[in-house]
Design goal:
By secondary structure, the chain is an alpha/beta fold. The chain is 48% helix and 13% strand. The strands form four sheets. The protein has a five-stranded parallel β-sheet with strand order 7-6-5-11-12, sandwiched between helices. Strands 1-2-4-3 form a four-stranded antiparallel β-sheet. Strands 8-9-10 form a three-stranded antiparallel β-sheet. The longest helix is centred in the middle third of the chain and has 26 residues. The two termini are 35 Å apart.
């Protein structure tokens, strides 16, 4: 409808130009928007204000001239000039109701667009270290990343979901050795915990799992301790990664790529690693220099606040160095010349953003990396902070939250705010089956419609669009208006990586349906009206399913 209104405005101005009332003008951008107040109609136009300088006329005079050319269009019921030159347009009921048919008939393709034009985008999220279970913050990145991917897909992007497995380096040896110690203690050995040690209950669980598989053979006299460490490290890694993958499956997050950090250190036929190749390219571009025995990247040349070390004086890499190689590999592996990368990181990585963007710019890929920083999740139970697991007395894991609350409520509530705001997640609210729980409220609207359609079918009543003109109640028109807004909301949410806008929309649509259901009896003796209202209800069901699907939340038929 926005494009239709723009076309009407354009035609009115063209007519005024051809009549000699206006001189030719260059049309501005973004001069049509939805009215913020219902009293001001459906659409507000600011074109008169934006072209007044070009025409050398008073905006109010321009607005009245344009408005005079809009009054005869069948889709417009009222044109009003207001303020310093706003043009407010009110649509006819017939124009508003036109949106109902596509809202129902296009099924899950409703509100799709081609904004992305088939371009590729790689979204990397969660990327939890395989040295421990996913925590609640990782759960937020799971919900957020998956919803962003679905938003981008709905707007025409080709999306690759990627998980970076940080499975190299000293932390992996500490992890493996922690399991060895718990294994030995399980066998009755009095082995002290080393200074660097993962002490979570999950380490004991892994040690038990390995004992069940291997028995005591790794605790025999004369065992090669290096070989034992390698075995325990690799087996513990496999078990932990499998656990992470299982939790991702539970919340419907399916990655296209699980990228192992170890691949960055793997030599090619020429004996060069991905890190070697990346460093060579930076050297060729004059972006590296030596100082104090270390190798530095000239990141200040590309907008960072200071230069960064990539190779320490002892010859080892900083964390930054392999990360540059990984991002370069991601870009070039997927040929993102016309696309870009999105990373979802915790807010504690904010200082890392400018240096990574600087590195990619130095390597010939400026403006290819978008980083979304996410704040923490604070758990509550009836308003009281929850910091420890009931089972282990330690941090509450994402899997434990799923066990208690369920995947749908967890994901939905994780998406209720912008990523830069912390989330206060109340466990008891998430479990409630009433209107105080937003996900229940939205899902109930969908289930209620499914139940209504089944009940109507028993009376041989079925949705039919032939009499939609019978829908004149304000609550009926409000539903249709909401349908027409969805494509714009999805495009804006995809552009700004803000799926929280869809949770707000879903709740507004559910509230509008419940209002309609209360005001307008659907199954009535007036068969024509009943069929029209059933059709409107079914369109609402479909729109709710579209929105919930993008959010990664189910649309149940009964509750």
């Amino acid at each position: 409808m926005k494009q239709q209104i723009e076309a009407l405005i354009q035609q009115a101005i063209d007519d005024l130009v051809s009549q000699g009332v206006f001189s030719p003008v260059e049309m501005p951008e973004d001069y049509i928007e939805r009215s913020r107040e219902k009293a001001h109609g459906d659409w507000a136009c600011t074109v008169a204000l934006k072209i007044s300088k070009q025409l050398g006329k008073n905006p109010l005079e321009i607005a009245y001239a344009i408005a005079s050319g809009l009054t005869e269009d069948a889709r417009i019921s009222q044109v009003e000039v207001a303020g310093p030159g706003f043009i407010n347009l009110t649509l006819t009921n017939e124009a508003i109701l036109e949106e109902i048919v596509p809202a129902r008939e296009q099924a899950l393709d409703y509100a799709k667009s081609t904004v992305g034009a088939g371009q590729r985008v790689n979204v990397e999220f969660i990327s939890a270290n395989p040295t421990g279970p996913m925590h609640v913050g990782h759960g937020r990145w799971a919900a957020l990343g998956n919803a962003i991917c679905r938003l981008l897909e709905h707007t025409g992007w080709q999306v690759v979901r990627e998980f970076y497995i940080n499975d190299s380096g000293h932390q992996m040896d500490v992890f493996g050795n922690s399991v060895v110690v718990r294994y030995q203690q399980l066998l009755g050995e009095n082995v002290p915990e080393p200074e660097e040690f993962y002490g979570g209950a999950y380490i004991s669980d892994i040690a038990h799992a390995i004992y069940d598989e291997e028995g005591p053979r790794w605790n025999q006299a004369g065992i090669d301790t290096d070989e034992r460490l390698v075995f325990f490290r690799e087996r513990a890694y496999q078990l932990m990664l499998s656990d992470i993958q299982t939790v991702c499956d539970r919340v419907g997050v399916n990655f296209d790529v699980w990228f192992s950090e170890r691949l960055l250190y793997k030599a090619d036929e020429a004996g060069h690693t991905l890190i070697d190749n990346m460093l060579a390219r930076l050297r060729e571009r004059g972006c590296l220099y030596e100082k104090d025995g270390a190798t530095w990247f000239r990141s200040t040349d590309y907008g960072d606040d200071k230069d960064r070390v990539v190779i320490k004086s002892d010859g080892t890499y900083t964390y930054f160095c392999p990360d540059i190689a990984y991002h370069l590999e991601k870009l070039e592996r997927q040929d993102l010349s016309s696309g870009f990368l999105i990373n979802i990181w915790g807010a504690d990585h904010h200082g890392y953003v400018p240096r990574m963007q600087a590195a990619l710019a130095a390597l010939g890929h400026p403006h290819k990396l978008t980083i979304l920083l996410g704040q923490l999740v604070n758990l509550y139970r009836d308003g009281t902070a929850v910091r420890m697991s009931k089972r282990t007395g330690e941090m509450v894991t994402f899997e434990e939250l799923l066990d208690e609350v369920g995947a749908d409520a967890t994901k939905y509530l994780m998406l209720g705010r912008t990523s830069d705001q912390p989330i206060d997640f109340d466990i008891e609210t998430a479990k409630r089956s009433d209107a105080s729980n937003p996900v229940y409220y939205v899902q109930y609207a969908h289930a209620r419609i499914c139940s209504l359609l089944k009940r109507a079918a028993q009376d041989q009543l079925y949705p039919d669009p032939l009499a939609l003109q019978r829908l004149t109640d304000s609550s009926e028109l409000e539903l249709a208006r909401l349908f027409s807004r969805l494509a714009e909301i999805i495009e804006a949410a995809a552009r700004d990586l803000a799926p929280n806008r869809l949770t707000a929309y879903a709740e507004e649509l559910a509230a509008a349906f419940h209002s309609f259901y209360t005001r307008c009896p659907v199954i009535t003796e007036d068969q024509e009206l009943a069929q029209a209202r059933l059709y409107l209800a079914d369109a609402t069901r479909n729109v709710l399913a579209v929105v919930l699907g993008i959010l990664g939340v189910s649309a149940p038929e009964r509750m």
